[in-house]
Amino acid sequence: MIYGMPVLLIFKEPDFGTSFVILVMLALSVFVWGISWRKVFLIVMISVLIILPLLWFFYFEDYQRNRVLTIPFRGHDPALSYHTEQALRAVAQGGLTGDRSGFDIYVPVKESDSIYTAISEYLGFFGTTSILALSSIFFWRSFTLASRLSEKNYASSYIVTALAGQMAFHFIENIGMNIGLLPITGIPLPFISDGGTSMVVNFLALGVILNIALNENYMSLSSTV
Predict the structure, then answer these.
(1) How far is residue 211 from each of residues 50, 55, 72, 81, measured CA to CA in Å?
(2) pTM for the complete prediction?
(3) Out of 34, 39, 123, 178, which could bridge 116 as a Cys pair, Cβ 3.0 to 4.6 Å?
(4) Structure letter (DSSP) for residue 213
(5) Is 44 exposed, middle or buried (0-12, 13-18, 19+ CB in 10 A)?
(6) Which candidate, 130, 116, 121, 115, places its Cα nearest to that of 95?
(7) Tell me, what's the pLDDT at 77?
(8) Which pLDDT tens digit goes with each residue over 160-177?
(9) Cβ within 8 Å of residue 179, ≥6 positions away
(10) Spatial distance between the Cα atoms of 116 and 182, rounded to a whole number of angstroms
């Protein structure tokens, strides 16, 4: 019920990408709560066989369906494929250490949704690898904290899992769509993409996670003393 209201309102907007992010937060919280793999399999199968076809035929607009089709069928829609093709060109242009020729490849919304292409183009493989390494460390630390908290404080564990999970999904979706593996959506790259609202919300989420981590250390110290 808590997740349902914002999901329905955002879904009605319509903004499928953001509503799906909230559903990911809910799914991760359910994993922390504990659910058998048999139930997970049933939920996935029901979603694939029933929910996804309903979304495909009755909710998605033509441009959304074409965005999905451009992944397995390159060039299916020249207008929508243009974004992906330009992004892939920019990613390849960077090489190992970045392109210094001064010839910039145009990618739509390069400062925000396509910021990963700019990192790859100007900093190359080393730059993108550094982003992946730093984000992996952050998410590993966050989910490790959530795992420890699940043994003594479920509420805090749910919060850390949901907040870190939504940022992880943003990273996966943003990078995936810029290298042609996922459909293009308006999902920013946390802490990197241009956009004040996204930056403020992510730093608030980070502050909550840090506060929970500090309180855990304080409680452990108090019990020891």
Answers:
(1) 41, 39, 43, 43
(2) 0.78
(3) 178
(4) H
(5) exposed
(6) 121
(7) 66
(8) 999 999 999 999 999 998
(9) 87, 88, 91, 116
(10) 14
